[in-house]
């Protein structure tokens, strides 16, 4: 498990949309850098479209509604998540906003394969092998009861794996700095895989953009 994270909210691993300038507009739904059908056959186009244009859009609008007109209006997303964990609307919708932005950015049509460089070395040092990391990560995703996420994180300079319920994430809980996460809510996979979460996770590895994960790792380390 990831423990004892020491860094909070000092800049994002991914580009977010802090509303300090556009505080009358709030957070905006990030555009995907690929088409809805670009991840087929591993993730189908209808799932991608609903996931982005309905689910992620919903978290975005509800987050804006939760902070509009309050003292929270104008804070960045990481500051909202880490500093207002007890605010259920901010926690759930802020997490949904941040988690999905990372999710989109760490997938792509040219994904799959294995990382190289420092990230590959760190995975081997920590888990023994790339396949062992995948096995532990998949186990975290499979044993997350109900809806949630599994994460590859950096904590105290070391890679670790954990999972969180609902739209929580390790930045909120202090467990680590996420560099890769998989959404295991049924809305992420049910159309193609039904209750077969294991098949979804196995297919999902084919769309992981390890170059982006390596960039996240460099930022976190
Ligand atoms: Fe989702």
Text of the CATH class: Alpha Beta
Radius of gyration: 17 Å
What share of the residues does DSSP label as strand, in percent? Answer: 5-15%
CATH superfamily: Iron/manganese superoxide dismutase, C-terminal domain
Order of secondary-structure elements: HHHHHEEHEHHH
Characterise this structure:
The protein is mainly α and 221 residues long. The chain has a single domain (41-221), classed as minor pseudopilin epsh fold, CATH 3.55.40.20. The chain has 9 helices and 3 strands; from the N terminus they run H-H-H-H-H-E-E-H-E-H-H-H. It has helices at 45-67, 77-83, 88-105, 117-127, 130-142, 170-173, 190-193, 197-204, 210-220; strands at residues 148-155, 158-165, 177-183. The protein has a 3-stranded antiparallel β-sheet with strand order 2-1-3. The longest helix is centred in the first third of the chain and has 23 residues, at 45-67. Mean pLDDT is 90; it is low at 3-24. Bound molecules: fe (ii) ion.
Keywords:
3 strands, binds fe (ii) ion, disordered N terminus, mainly alpha, 3-stranded antiparallel beta sheet, 45% helix, 221 residues, 9 helices, minor pseudopilin epsh fold
């Amino acid at each position: 498990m990831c423990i004892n994270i020491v860094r909070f909210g000092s800049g994002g691993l991914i580009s977010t949309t802090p509303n300090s300038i556009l505080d009358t507009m709030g957070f905006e739904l990030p555009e995907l850098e690929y088409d809805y059908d670009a991840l087929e056959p591993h993730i189908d186009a209808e799932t991608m479209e609903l996931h982005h244009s309905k689910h992620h859009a919903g978290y975005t609008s509800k987050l804006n509604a939760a902070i509009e007109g309050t003292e929270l209006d104008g804070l960045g997303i990481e500051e909202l998540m880490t500093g207002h964990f007890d605010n259920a609307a901010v926690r759930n919708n802020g997490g949904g906003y941040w988690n999905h932005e990372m999710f989109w950015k760490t997938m792509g049509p040219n994904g799959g394969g294995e990382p190289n460089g420092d990230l590959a070395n760190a995975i081997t040092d920590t888990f023994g092998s790339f396949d062992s990391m995948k096995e532990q990560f998949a186990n975290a995703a499979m044993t997350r009861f109900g809806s949630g996420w599994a994460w590859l994180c950096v904590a105290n300079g070391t890679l670790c794996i954990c999972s969180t319920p609902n739209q929580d994430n390790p930045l909120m809980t202090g467990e680590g700095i996420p560099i890769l996460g998989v959404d295991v809510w049924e809305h992420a996979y049910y159309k193609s895989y039904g209750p077969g979460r294991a098949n979804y996770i196995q297919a999902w590895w084919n769309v992981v953009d390890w170059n982006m994960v390596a960039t996240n790792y460099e930022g976190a380390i």
